[in-house]
Structure formats: C-alpha cells, structure tokens
Amino acid sequence: MMDVEPVLGYVDADEDLRQQHASLEGTQHALLRERERYARLFDDAPDAYLVTDAQSIVQDANVMAEQLLNLPRGFLIGKPLVMFVEPSSRRKLRQQLLSIRGLKRLHELETRLHPRRRTPVDVAITIALASEEAETTTLRWMIRDISERKRAIAQIEALNEDLERRVQERTAQLEAETQLKEVAYLQEHAARAEAERANELKLQFLAMISHELRTPLTSIKGFASTLLASDITFKAEDQHDFLQVIDEEADRLTELIEQLLDLSRLNAGTLRIHCRPVTGGEVVNRASAQLTTLTAQHHLTIDLPDNLPLLMIDPDRIAQVIVNLVENSANYSPSGTPIAVVFEADTGAVTVSVSDEGPGIAPDQRDAVFELFRGFGNGQRYQGTGLGLAICKGLVEAHGGVIWIDPAVSLGTIVRFTLPTAEA
Fold it and tell me: How many domains does the chain have?
C-alpha cells in the first residue's frame, strides 16, 4: 500500500509554485502596465523629454523632442544632445553637467538650440540626475521652448524702452518749455525794467531839457524886457552888456536845439553825412575857433602828424565830434590842466584821441556814458544835457568808425575814435 504523506507533500509544493507563478505574472502585468503608462506620459508630455548618459548621449526621446529637434527618435538615439546646442554655449553646458552629481538637478538653463533645417529656438533646460551607478549615469532632460516668452519679453523691453524714451522726450520737452517760459519771463521782466528805465530817463530828459531851454530863455526875456522898459534909461555900456548876455544865451539855445535836431536825425537815420577826402588840418581848422574858446582855462595841444593820410569824412561833423569831446574835457577837468588832441595813423584808419586829467570814468560806466541822456563818472553827474557823447557816438558810427573810453588810463580820461582813410 502506497504512503499518502509524500504524495500530499508534492501536491502542496505544486500549489505553492502555482501561487508564486500567478503572483509573478501579476507583478509582471503591473510592471508592464506601469511601463506603458510611463511611456504614454513620456510621449504625451507637453515639453520635450530626453534621457541621456553623463556625456549627453541620447538614450530615449519623446514626441515633443522629435518635433523640437526636427528629427525622429531613431536618429536621435545615440547622438550627443550637446551637438544641438549653440556652439558658443556648449563649453558652459559641459561644465555644468560635471557639477550635476553634487547638485542632483540643474534648473532652467537658458540657451539656444539649432534643430535640423529649422530656425534656432530659445529653450530653458532642466536636467535631473535619474541614476548614478558604478558604471553608468542617467540624466533626464526637460526642454521647454521659450521663444515666445523671449519674444514677449523683448517686446515688453522694447515697449519699456519706447515708453522711457517718450517719457524722456516729454520730460525734455517740458524742461525746454519751462526754460523758454523762464527766458520769456526774464526777457519780459528785463523789457519791463528797460521800459521803466527808458521812461525814467525820458522824464529826466524832459525835465533837464525844460530847464536847459528855460534858463537861456529866461535870461533873454529878462534882459530884453529890461532894455525895453520905458521908465529906465541905461548907459551905453550897460546896454552893450545886456545885449551880449542876450547874444550868448541865444547861442546857447541855438546849440541845444541843434543837438536835439542832430539826435533826432541820428535816431531816424536821416542825418546827412557828406564825406569827401580831407586832411586832418582842415578838420582842426574848422574846429579851432571853438576849441580856443572852450580851452581858455586849459593848456590845449594838438598833435597832427605831417604824413597823416587823407580822411574820407564829413569835416564839419568830425569837427563837431572833436569840439564836443574837448568841451567835456574842459568842463570836467581842473583849470590849468592839459587837454590833448592826437591824430595817429593806423592800417586803413586814423585814430583820434582826446585826453584830459579830470576825475576819470568808472570802468562799469565807460560804455554807459555814450548812451542817450547818460553821463556819469566816479560818483558824480556830469553837467550839461547828456547829449554830447551820444551824438559823438552816432556821428562816428555814421562814418563807419568806433568810439570808446581807453581802459588803460589810470589818471583822467582818454576818449578814442577811428575814422576811415581815403585809401581804405
């Protein structure tokens, strides 16, 4: 009779083997399903995924990687992924790959890829260390196309630059407008101040002219009325003295009126200048009588070189200039001091100077004395109408010359002016 226990043992062992086989088949099916699931996820991923070794040799690639690099998976496998990277960035990428063992992951490495027969694209690469065994190292690459993002950033930067440029232009425009307004305000303020000054000078001039006209008229009227008085009999010498005063005051009044007329013609541009070739001696001769009278209390010298070239001038008008300047010197320099009139030849012109030993003119007033109704020097107001130097300036400039106060003089005043020569 056969032993039952060994048979039962064999039955149990077969059952265990069947259970183990069934469990192994279940595990294999689960692994297969998981692998299929991973493959679907790998292929259906929205970004390019690749698996490489440590030298970036491609071992696997998904559909998006094929589209991005414009190569089928079969051609990608076995190729170094670095070869698709822009040449200028390859060295840097290789150096970063060497550091991945310590970092485990490299995030968002931005570079440019060159797909086959396609326009280069800007990408962001994330590399993760999948496994690190003794003989092999596996890397997982996720590559995202950021060309659109780059273009959007570039557009934003361009818009920002354009906005900044417009802001700068508008700011500059506003600053320019502000400056123009400030300049306009300053000009308006200066014009108003100048108008006020001109009005003040006009009032001063009218007051001065009224006084200057009234003084000789009062004398003429007074002495004439005295002479006409029927109840008084004057001696002949008294009558002569009265008539001499009337004559002098009439001359003074005539001179003032002539100055006003000359000034009016100069301002209107209607003053007639009759230029012709003349000698310096002729000019001096026309002025000599008045110069002798004006400098009766001074020592007048006239330096007139023999070789002085002919002048192309109106001799009467230039004689008037010299008389006016000498009269100023005589009025404002001490009695007994010298007054000199000097003619000097220069290239194409003759310079005439009138010097005295008076109080001089302050540097900040040397230009102002030639202005209308002005005449200041070293804190004092010059006597007279203030028309003489303004008329001198107008007459000299009408001849094409210039007139100025010599700044190099420490004692007294030297007024210089230029005249054209006949040769020039």
Answer: 2
Cβ-based burial of 250 (10 A; exposed 0-12, middle 13-18, buried ≥19): middle
- Cβ contacts of residue 110 below 8 Å, gap of 6+? 122, 123, 124, 125, 146
In 3D space, the residue among 406, 404, 412, 386 whose CA is nearest the CA of residue 334 turns out to be: 412
Instruction: Residue 45: name the closest of 129, 126, 142, 186 by CA.
Output: 142
- Give me the DSSP letters along 285-349: HHHHHHHHHHTTTSEEEEE--TTPPPEEE-HHHHHHHHHHHHHHHHHHS-TT-EEEEEEEEETTE
Q: Quote the domain boundaries for residue 97.
A: 45-145
Q: What is the pLDDT of residue 333?
A: 92
pTM: 0.49
Burial of 369 (0-12, 13-18, 19+ CB in 10 A): buried
Would you place residue 376 in the very low, low, confident or very high pLDDT band (cuts 50, 70, 90)? very low
- CA-nearest of 66, 62, 36 to 49 is 62
Last residue of some domain: 93, 121, 145? 145
Tally Cβ neighbours within 10 Å of residue 137. Answer: 17
Query: Is residue 288 included in any domain, yes or no?
Result: yes
Say yes or no to pLDDT of 30 above 70.
Answer: no
Name the token pair of 275. Answer: 């230029």
Q: CA 68 to CA 205: how far, in whole Å?
A: 95
How do 299-303 and 338-346 pair as beta strands? parallel
| Span 327-354, average pLDDT | 93
Residue 245: the pLDDT is 85
**DSSP per position, 130-198:** EEE-SS-EEEEEEEEE-HHHHHHHHHHHHHHHHHHHHHHHHHHHHHHHHHHHHHHHHHHHHHHHHHHHH
Show the CA angle centred on residue 63, arms to residues 58 and 68, nearest 5°: 75
Token pair 């320019």 is found at 176
State which of 87, 112, 145 marks the end of a domain. 145
Which residues in 186-202 are b (16+ Cβ under 10 Å) and which e? eeeeeeeeeeeeeeebe
Closest CA to 352 of 259, 417, 422: 417
pLDDT tens-place string over residues 34-80: 666 666 667 778 899 999 998 899 999 999 999 999 999 999 999 99
**Interval 136-181: pLDDT, tens:** 889 999 999 999 988 998 899 999 999 999 999 999 999 999 999 9
Query: How crowded is residue 147: how many other Cβ atoms within 10 Å of its Cβ?
Result: 14
pLDDT reading at 375 higher than 50: no
